[in-house]
Write a sequence for this structure.
């Protein structure tokens, strides 16, 4: 059978025609043909015959042209076209493409690519890389296993002698020339691993020869480290619009240094889940939106409202203040008459004379502990057109 | 080939405004001639600029020689003009630098690009050369889709990518072609190494 199939062109082309009629995809039909002929058929030749039949040709007499060096192939495409093609590949396909050959590995690594969401989790027992809520690579430091999941279904798993080293190598490959909509960090590991992760990122940053193109940077850092600002400074200021930081990191490691970075000048949104001294809060009025935990007095609340009312960029902010100003004190500072002292929330609108529009202020208080007289005040200020 | 016998691209005349009803004639590098509506030409920035610069009247279009496109063959150009005619009047996407470009392949385009790999790459090359933004977008997407779920060995075949061994052989062949003595020197070096010599010199 395989002999006939190999030697008799009409039988061979008849098989391909049957595959076209049965609507078997070209590559699947090709694999079957290789199996039956027990040899590697030239894919381009096979595809040519397949496409002739798909285009309506029905005679078993397709003449395959002689391919020449002048024929177009993927590797002969102009650089910008290559970029356009490669921008359509997802992370997994890029990894497979890298294994085609060493030359192609370089081609893949030198093209820019895009990821909507990249999550980097470094914990005591494992390291995780998550892409676009679809792929998750997990490096388990205890079991020495590396696994790939797609949509929460395991695809591959293999053992690895040094999972952390493998993770750093893969991270270098993935993040090179990558543009990311949202980059998230969760760091809950020891100082040594954390520093190594940051060193790896700095190295990629250097090798790239350009800043990381990230629009939203989110970091939950559960170790006291001073690496956040250096990390922030590796981000391309023209891309970075939003930053969110929380965890056990000390706010002194971020403020006032953040105001001196190039990234600050273009930032629109800042969410700080850490306690920040009030004297560092006022400058946030330069942003479009900010969220912060602080402690304010009556005078500081008045001062803040004054600053927000004169800012040209400010749109909205949320402040959480612990055990400082009470809601009654805030109301008095803003000339708001409350129906009674026990009231827990109020809204107030301040008309802005020169600039037009108004500031809408919503304040709310919540008791944390009656015994210890602990409470928090939520203050939301929004600019109305 | 005479204009009468030229493969005329199907034109939906009702969709073309009366004042725009002018057809340009183009000739591929294998002397195939095409008539293409003015509105369809607008999909190609390169051709649009060219015809604008020429300032042809309706008479010129008929009497002067067809505009030669020397880098593209008839088979590819036919696909290009079929695409342009089908998408005439549609807005041309503006590249605002945003990535990734969300590209959907319409049914017509999918059928048009149901061609062999060689022709598909020629189509991409032509779309790039003629600066037809949306055709380039969909054809690049089509090429990328071909990689879905394939192994490295399969990708080598689909994209005609050489393996490391083939790369190495090609490099060696190129070296030999440049300097026939290079191979002899290399072999001599290998031989000396086999004999246990530490230094070539």
């Amino acid at each position: 059978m395989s002999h006939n199939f190999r030697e008799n062109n009409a039988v061979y082309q008849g098989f391909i025609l049957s595959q076209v009629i049965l609507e078997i995809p070209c590559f699947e039909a090709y694999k079957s043909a290789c199996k039956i002929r027990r040899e590697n058929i030239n894919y381009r030749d096979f595809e040519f015959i397949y496409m002739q039949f798909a285009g309506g040709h029905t005679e078993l007499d397709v003449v395959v042209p002689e391919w020449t060096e002048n024929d177009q192939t993927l590797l002969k495409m102009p650089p910008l076209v290559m970029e356009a093609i490669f921008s359509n590949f997802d992370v997994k396909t890029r990894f497979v493409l890298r294994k085609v050959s060493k030359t192609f590995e370089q081609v893949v690594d030198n093209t820019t690519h895009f990821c909507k969401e990249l999550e980097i989790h470094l914990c005591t027992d494992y390291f995780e890389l998550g892409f676009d809520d679809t792929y998750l690579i997990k490096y388990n430091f205890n079991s020495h296993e590396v696994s790939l999941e797609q949509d929460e279904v395991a695809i591959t798993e293999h053992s690895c002698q040094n999972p952390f080293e493998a993770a750093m190598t893969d991270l270098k490959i993935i993040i090179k020339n990558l543009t990311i909509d949202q980059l998230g960090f969760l760091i809950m590991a020891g100082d040594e691993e954390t520093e190594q992760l940051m060193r790896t990122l700095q190295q990629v940053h250097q090798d790239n020869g350009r800043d990381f193109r990230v629009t939203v940077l989110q970091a939950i850092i559960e170790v006291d480290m001073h690496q956040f600002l250096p990390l922030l400074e590796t981000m391309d200021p023209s891309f970075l619009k939003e930053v969110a930081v929380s965890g056990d990191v000390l706010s002194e490691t971020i403020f006032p240094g953040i105001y001196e970075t190039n990234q600050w000048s273009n930032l629109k949104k800042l969410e700080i889940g850490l306690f920040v001294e009030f004297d560092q809060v006022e400058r946030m009025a330069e942003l479009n939106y900010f969220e912060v935990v602080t402690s304010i007095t009556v005078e500081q609340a008045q001062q803040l409202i004054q600053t927000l009312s004169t800012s040209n960029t400010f749109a909205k902010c949320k402040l959480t203040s612990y055990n400082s100003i009470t809601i009654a004190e805030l109301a008095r500072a803003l000339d708001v008459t409350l129906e009674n002292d026990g009231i827990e929330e109020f809204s107030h609108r301040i008309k802005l004379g020169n600039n037009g529009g108004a500031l809408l202020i919503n304040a709310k208080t919540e008791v944390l502990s009656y015994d210890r007289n602990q409470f928090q005040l939520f203050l939301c200020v929004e600019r109305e057109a | 080939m005479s204009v009468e016998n030229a493969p005329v691209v199907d034109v939906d005349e009702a969709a073309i405004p009366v004042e725009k009803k002018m057809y340009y004639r183009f000739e591929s590098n294998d002397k195939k001639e095409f008539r293409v509506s003015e509105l369809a030409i607008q999909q190609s920035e390169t051709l649009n600029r060219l015809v604008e610069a020429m300032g042809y009247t309706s008479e010129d279009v008929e009497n002067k020689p067809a505009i030669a496109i020397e880098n593209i063959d008839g088979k590819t150009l036919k696909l290009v003009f079929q695409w342009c005619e089908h998408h005439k009047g549609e807005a041309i996407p503006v590249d605002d630098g945003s990535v990734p470009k969300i590209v959907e392949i319409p049914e017509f385009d999918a059928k048009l690009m149901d061609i062999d790999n060689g022709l598909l790459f020629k189509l991409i090359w032509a779309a790039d050369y003629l600066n037809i933004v949306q055709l380039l977008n969909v054809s690049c997407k089509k090429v990328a889709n071909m990689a879905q779920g394939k192994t490295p060995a399969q990708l080598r075949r689909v994209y005609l990518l050489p393996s490391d061994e083939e790369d190495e052989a090609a490099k060696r062949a190129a070296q030999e072609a440049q300097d026939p003595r290079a191979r002899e020197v290399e072999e001599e070096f290998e031989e000396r190494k086999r004999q246990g010599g530490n230094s070539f010199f």
Notes: The domain at 13-145 of chain B is CATH 3.30.710.10 (Potassium Channel Kv1.1; Chain A). The CA atoms of residues 162 and 180 of chain B lie 24 Å apart.
